[in-house]
């Protein structure tokens, strides 16, 4: 983040909190708005509203967007967007245009709910949850929005009236290329659940221009090509007025202020701008609509250098922008090269620094003392990728806000929680000290100070156990020295959780057992990864969801899965079991048709379907899966015909 000598410019689009002078027709006064760094607090909103003349307030309320509720209003919105937003007509509206118009109609509805949610949360001035994840595997947004606001049938009938099948329209959407696997799907499910439970929560991530890659199979081989998922994305809102300057490289200077107090400042280096993009996250069966804020990288010097261009240096005229944009270009850039490692660490700091800046700005609206920060802010780290947020918050509090080290560290360790995703020591993230020294010199200093403070505490608690100090040190004494990010996350968080009961038990007895000895078992807990039944049951298998609802007396189970235990009463119900099997078989027939259409391979829908849905990637171990297929094939070949008949056919 920017230093005290080069402060980031306050967002010119921040909400109003100062009022100046009359404006408007003679005899009608309305306060002139001046934008500020922090924006509205709860009390300021009320004073602003009271200062607006009654006729103007009534006009705003009269014409405030309500969003559609009926089939007719939905059709009206779709036609309006086709003709005015997309500049098309009835004669050239294809399925892509119909998808765009339907999405924009639902987006408009979500935004009115989003605005009310943010205002309601600001008025309540309660604690907010911030979920930091390098991945958000969101899935298709239109179908999810339709279901969560309870208007899918309205949309289905409306699109049918306009000449389209809802299934065809939903299939036009590109998946948001913001994630790759379970890490990202967990983050997406958390955001969905937080909104559905009406918790005030924000997600923070990176707006990848190309995602990880789009897989194509050519002559039996995987070919990775860019995923141009942003070519049309109606679900994001560019916030070009929310821009944060992020600093890299440079050097650290110490000095004494006028009172003789020692100060540290991070100077020089390179500045890259983080531009915010917002994505509304609707809750299920609730007006709450939360926010996912994604950061895109831009050159601080602007996109284009006229002087270089006019002098004939055309490539260099856009070089700064191209270099800056690589930060948010792809998820998990190849780190086999040193430049790739630097880019990954750049990505992580860029994202957490911009997010922390935003979180701190929002906290400052409340005018509270810093000691209340953990009472207003909870930050969850999804794996070790956002661990630098711990160091960055310490830097902000000490270097920029002037807090004493111990006071700042007390705030930091009460704010963060850390979710661990692996039990393998070799999979724990580490960065070399020389890379840190070059890219983030001040943060390396802070990490060393955190480590010293921590090891001194351990030494006092366990005198004479020198081996323990080496095992738990944040700095690994290797060649070169390495920063152990998982250890930093544990030391800087008040809770550490695994993602399954067995996993949580294993980390306490294996990779983190020394930390359990130091901090005690209460710091380590389990939060089993769940999935959202709204997407993975109600949306993915609507007929099954409908059958369950018919037996349980409604769809309450979509918010409380413990209600599914009531299905045990129907375990011997022949009619229920027959309906269940019919739904399952119908879905397998649909999949068999899809396989035939896309691959020209015929499969038996009565067979057991054994599926691995993943990109072909080394760590996904598809080769092991193929070995398993070969083993099963050879085993079946060696069986007698009688034994072979007893086997369930498998696809």
From TrEMBL:
Family, per entry: Belongs to the glycogen phosphorylase family.
Role played: Allosteric enzyme that catalyzes the rate-limiting step in glycogen catabolism, the phosphorolytic cleavage of glycogen to produce glucose-1-phosphate, and plays a central role in maintaining cellular and organismal glucose homeostasis.
Domain of life the protein comes from: Eukaryota
Cofactor: pyridoxal 5'-phosphate
GO molecular function: glycogen phosphorylase activity; pyridoxal phosphate binding
Stretches the record annotates as Disordered: 1-41
Recorded catalytic activity of this chain's protein: [(1->4)-alpha-D-glucosyl](n) + phosphate = [(1->4)-alpha-D-glucosyl](n-1) + alpha-D-glucose 1-phosphate
InterPro entries named in the record: Glycg_phsphrylas, Glyco_trans_35
EC numbers, comma separated: 2.4.1.1
Gene Ontology cellular component list: cytoplasm
Gene Ontology BP term (one): glycogen catabolic process
Keyword vocabulary terms for this entry: Carbohydrate metabolism, Glycosyltransferase, Pyridoxal phosphate, Transferase
Name of protein: Alpha-1,4 glucan phosphorylase
Bias-annotated ranges (Basic and acidic residues): 1-10
NCBIfam families attached to this UniProt entry: P_ylase
């Amino acid at each position: 983040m920017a230093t005290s000598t080069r402060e980031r410019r306050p967002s010119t689009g921040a909400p109003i909190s100062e009022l100046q002078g009359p404006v408007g027709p003679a005899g009608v006064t309305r306060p002139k708005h001046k934008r500020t760094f922090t924006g509205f607090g709860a009390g300021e909103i009320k004073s602003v509203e009271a200062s607006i003349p009654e006729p103007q307030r009534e006009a705003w309320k009269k014409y405030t967007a309500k969003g559609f509720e009926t089939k007719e209003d939905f059709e009206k919105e779709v036609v309006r967007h086709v003709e005015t937003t997309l500049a098309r007509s009835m004669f050239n509206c294809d399925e892509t245009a119909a998808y765009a118009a339907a999405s924009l109609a639902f987006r408009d509805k979500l935004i009115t709910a989003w605005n009310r949610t943010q205002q309601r949360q600001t008025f309540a001035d309660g604690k907010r949850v911030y979920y930091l994840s390098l991945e958000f595997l969101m899935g298709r947004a239109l179908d999810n929005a339709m279901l969560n606001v309870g208007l899918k049938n309205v949309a289905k009938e409306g699109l049918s009236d306009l000449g389209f099948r809802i299934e065809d329209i939903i299939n036009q959407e590109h998946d948001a290329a913001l994630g790759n696997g379970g890490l990202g799907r967990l983050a997406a499910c958390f955001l969905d659940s937080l909104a559905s439970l009406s918790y005030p929560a924000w997600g923070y991530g990176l707006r990848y221009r190309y995602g990880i890659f789009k897989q194509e199979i050519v002559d039996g081989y995987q070919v990775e090509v860019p995923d141009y998922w942003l070519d049309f994305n109606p679900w994001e809102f560019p916030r070009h007025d929310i821009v944060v300057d992020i600093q890299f490289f440079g050097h650290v200077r110490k000095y004494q202020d006028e009172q003789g107090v020692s100060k540290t400042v991070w100077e020089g280096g390179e500045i890259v701008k983080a531009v915010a993009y917002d994505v509304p996250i609707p809750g299920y069966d609730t007006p709450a609509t939360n926010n996912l804020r994604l950061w895109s990288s831009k050159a601080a010097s602007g996109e284009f250098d006229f002087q270089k261009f006019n002098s004939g240096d055309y490539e260099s005229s856009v070089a700064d922008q191209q270099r800056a944009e690589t930060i948010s270009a792809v998820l998990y850039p190849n780190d086999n090269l040193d430049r790739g490692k630097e880019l990954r660490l750049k990505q992580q700091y860029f994202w957490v620094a911009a997010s922390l800046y935003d979180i701190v700005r929002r906290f400052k609206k409340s005018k509270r003392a810093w000691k209340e920060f953990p009472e207003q802010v909870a930050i969850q780290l999804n794996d070790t990728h956002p661990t630098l947020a711990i160091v960055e918050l310490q830097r902000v509090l000490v270097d920029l806000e002037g807090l004493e080290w111990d006071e700042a560290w007390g705030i930091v360790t009460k704010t963060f929680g850390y979710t661990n995703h692996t039990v393998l020591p070799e999979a724990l993230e580490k960065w070399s000290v020389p890379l840190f020294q070059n890219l983030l010199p001040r943060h390396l200093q802070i990490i060393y100070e955190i480590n010293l403070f921590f090891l001194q505490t351990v030494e006092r608690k366990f005198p004479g156990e020198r081996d323990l100090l080496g095992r738990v040190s944040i700095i690994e004494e290797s060649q070169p020295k390495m920063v152990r990010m998982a250890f930093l996350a544990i030391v800087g968080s008040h809770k550490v959780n695994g993602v399954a009961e067995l996993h949580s038990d294993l980390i306490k007895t294996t990779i983190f057992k020394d930390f359990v000895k130091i901090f005690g078992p209460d710091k380590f807990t389990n939060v089993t990864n769940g999935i959202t039944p709204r997407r993975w049951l109600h949306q993915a298998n609507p007929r099954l969801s409908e059958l369950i609802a018919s037996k349980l007396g409604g769809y309450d189970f979509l918010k409380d899965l413990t209600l599914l235990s009531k299905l045990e009463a129907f375990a011997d119900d022949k009619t229920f079991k027959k309906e269940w099997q019919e739904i399952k078989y119908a879905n397998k027939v649909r999949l068999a048709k899809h396989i035939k259409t896309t691959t020209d391979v015929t499969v038996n829908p009565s067979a057991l379907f054994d599926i691995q849905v993943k990109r072909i990637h080394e760590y996904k171990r598809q080769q092991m899966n193929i070995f398993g297929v070969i083993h099963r094939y050879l085993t079946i070949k060696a069986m007698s015909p009688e034994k072979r008949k007893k086997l369930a056919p498998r696809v």
